[in-house]
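=== RUN LOG ===
request id: a7f3
mode: sequence -> structure
chains: 1
length: 92
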Amino acid sequence: MDIMRELYSVIKDRQEHPVEGSYTNYLFDKGTDKISKKLGEEAVEVVIAASQRDKKEIIAEIADLEYHLLVLMADQGITIDDVETELRSRRG
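=== RESULT ===
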C-alpha cells in the first residue's frame, strides 16, 4: 500500500472510530469550514516555502498540504480512486 492510501486509511479509521486527542478528529469535529481553512493555510505555506527556495521546507509543507487534502476528501466522501479516475480521464 502506498503512503497516501495508508494515510487516507488512517484518516477514514479516525473518522469512523474517533480517538481522544487526535488532531484528525479535532478537524472532523470542527467541520468542513475548519478543514477547508487549514487546507488553504497549508497551500499558502507551500507557496511561501517555494518562494524562499527552501527545498526541505517545501517538502514539509507539501506533506502538510496533502494530509489536509486527504482529510477534506474523507470529509466529503471522496476517495483516492475518485481522484485517480478524474486524472486518468484528463489524459485523453
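=== NOTES ===
The chain has a mean pLDDT of 96.
The two ends are 27 Å apart (CA to CA).
=== END ===
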